[in-house]
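Consider the record:
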Amino acid sequence: MTDIRESRTLYLASGNAGKLKEFRVLAESSGKNWQLELLPDYAKLPEFEEAAPTFAENAAGKAFYYSRRGDGIVFADDSGLVVPALGGAPGVLSARYAGPGASNEQRIAKLLFEMKGLEGANRSAYFVCVITAVRNGRAVAVVSEKVDGEILDAPRGSDGFGYDPVFYLPPMGKTFAELRAEEKSVHSHRGKAFRRLLEVLE
């Protein structure tokens, strides 16, 4: 059986080009020589329904589901924004918060509408990322990380995706959408989780 470390390609079970771009930046900066690709024919496969109530269950479900469609190490993440003052919303529904097919702008608009009138600590929020990697039907890693911040009352910045323009990181004095790719890879929930994944695989 081939050692995991000898297989230097990781297949992302996602059609999200923004995620792939971020993960590639992280892989390149790791110095570990991992190659990242989208899972072949991902768009042609029946979509996995992310119906579980937790990030961990959704990440594991996606990884196992799509690993049956390809060889090598397949990894999937479930990431989302949690606002305690909204009872944990958007949470696992982050990508579907404004309904199926909604744009990033529409999701942000709904979030800001729901948070209208909230101030101070009530605008605290955090991003969560759970990653599961599966090979030949066996989980080889499950990692999770988070990053704390707060929600601004208006978007700032033009980079990133999702809720990045309104997620403010106090230590940096910037939103995620204002960070350079290298800065975001250091501070983001996805960056921290992916580095842990590579450590486990090494």
Summary: DSSP finds five helices and seven strands in the chain. The first strand starts at residue 9 and ends at 12. Helices lie at 17-30, 55-67, 104-114, 181-187, 189-201. Residues 17-30 form the longest helix (14 residues).
